[in-house]
């Protein structure tokens, strides 16, 4: 999928507030951008906590030949976070080899750092849009859509690969930390001693 | 709102919560023609594209693999697909479309027959489609509750999409672990192979 995303048709409108710039708008509290940012926050949290839970030696594991390894999936997600915002007017940072990112490292700490940096980039891209921009037209895989449609695609991409990383973790007997937490709370509730009858 | 997204991930409780949730007072119009522009058009373009992939992946899995699971604590192949279907039937309640009366939510994850799983999956995908068609553009910004949190009609559709995507990703990994190449990847590889064959040999 990313291969086709590497050369998107980029609409020609100015980037109003480059990522990290002081001009970046305050986070919106309602509307399309607020909802997309909420989605990004959810995905960053999930990807990062799951990656933290996977043992470093498992980052080269893959379910079969010709399929991405754990490290490659996380870096593929990061590459897309850098690349897809081109659709809505924010180019990848100068000097970053986005094409080479997927196979750039298998080091767990580096991968998690890259993941966070890539989420900061995609968040900055959404923040740099105005609410009026979301209806701007662009082409995605040859189809007419808008900035809003491109952001639907970004969330879709994140959702799909999160599911993949969860399955990879499970295949390596890693329980996602949020499930572990939920199970721990359920266990605690079951073990709670029954209240003494009031007399 | 992230609390809302964290809640939707615990879909073990989703069905019970959504089925029991009060129905919001949104105008549910009769099914309209597919919109050509706007959020719903974009949502539906995405939904139709990847729903086709979800169904084709289920169809590509051998029937005997529907009870396969990576370890005893995790959902099986059929349970993943029926979990997707459960979400697709339940989430639209938040936008004013209650689940179909004939869906047995408690029994969904016990269905392991491939033909039945595929059939229910197709019905659930269409159910979300109808929910998007029946929603009016004017309602998209209206406030609704999902898992007790404040959100909008539009965000419910975002969450419906990302929920199916997340479990679709799981289903792809399950397929790969069983040596099944996703049909769209197999088709692309076949095209590439054909292209290679047609190149003039020097």
Structure description:
The complex is a heterodimer of chains A (199) and B (202). Chain A has 199 residues and is mainly alpha-helical. Chain A contains 6 helices and 2 strands, in the order ααααββαα. Chain A has helices at 2-5, 32-53, 70-83, 108-127, 147-171, 177-191; strands at 137-140, 143-146. A two-stranded antiparallel ribbon of chain A has the order 1-2. In chain A, a hairpin with a 2-residue loop joins strand 1 (137-140) and strand 2. Chain B has one domain (2-198): dinb family like domain (Four Helix Bundle (Hemerythrin (Met), subunit A)), CATH 1.20.120.450. Chain B has helices at 2-9, 14-20, 39-60, 77-90, 105-108, 114-134, 153-177, 183-198, and strands at 143-146, 149-152. Chain A binds chain B through residues 30-32, 34-36, 38-39, 41-42, 45-46, 63-64, 67, 143, 145-146, 148-149, 152-153, 155-156, 158-168, 170-171, 173, 175, 178, 182, and chain B through 1-2, 4-6, 9-10, 39, 42-43, 45-46, 50, 70-71, 73-74, 141, 151-152, 154-155, 158, 161-174, 176-177, 179.
């Amino acid at each position: 999928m990313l291969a086709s995303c590497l050369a998107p048709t980029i609409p020609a409108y100015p980037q109003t507030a480059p990522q990290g710039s002081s001009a970046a708008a305050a986070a919106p509290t309602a509307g399309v951008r607020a909802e997309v940012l909420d989605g990004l926050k959810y995905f960053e949290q999930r990807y990062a906590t799951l990656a933290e839970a996977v043992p470093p030696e498992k980052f080269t594991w893959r379910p079969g030949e010709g399929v991405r390894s754990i490290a490659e999936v996380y870096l593929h997600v990061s590459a897309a976070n850098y690349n897809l915002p081109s659709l809505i007017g924010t180019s990848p940072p100068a000097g970053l080899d986005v094409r080479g990112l997927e196979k750039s490292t298998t080091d767990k700490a580096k991968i998690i750092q890259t993941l966070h940096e890539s989420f900061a980039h995609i968040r900055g891209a959404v923040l740099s849009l105005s609410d009026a921009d979301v209806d701007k037209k662009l082409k995605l895989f040859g189809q007419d859509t808008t900035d809003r449609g491109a952001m639907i695609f970004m969330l879709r991409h994140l959702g799909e690969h999160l599911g993949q990383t969860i399955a990879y973790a499970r295949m390596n007997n890693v329980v996602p930390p949020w499930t572990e937490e939920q199970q721990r709370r359920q266990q605690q509730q079951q073990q709670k001693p029954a209240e003494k009858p009031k007399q | 709102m992230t609390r809302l997204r964290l809640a939707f991930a615990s879909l073990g409780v989703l069905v019970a919560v959504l089925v029991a949730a009060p129905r919001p007072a949104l105008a549910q119009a009769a099914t309209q023609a597919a919109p050509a522009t706007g959020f719903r058009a974009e949502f539906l373009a995405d939904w139709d594209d990847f729903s086709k992939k979800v169904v084709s992946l289920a169809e590509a899995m051998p029937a005997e693999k529907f009870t396969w699971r990576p370890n005893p604590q995790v959902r099986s192949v059929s349970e993943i697909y029926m979990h997707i279907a459960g979400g697709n039937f339940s989430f639209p309640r938040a936008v004013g479309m209650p689940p179909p009366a004939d869906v047995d939510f408690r029994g969904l994850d016990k269905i392991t027959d491939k033909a039945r799983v595929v059939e229910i999956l197709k019905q659930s995908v269409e159910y979300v489609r109808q929910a998007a068609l029946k929603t009016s553009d004017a309602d998209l910004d209206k406030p609704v509750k999902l898992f007790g949190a404040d959100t909008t009609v539009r965000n419910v559709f975002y969450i419906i999409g990302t929920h199916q995507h997340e479990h679709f990703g799981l289903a792809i990994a399950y397929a790969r672990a069983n040596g099944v190449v996703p049909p769209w990847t197999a088709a692309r590889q076949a095209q590439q192979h054909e292209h290679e064959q047609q190149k003039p040999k020097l």
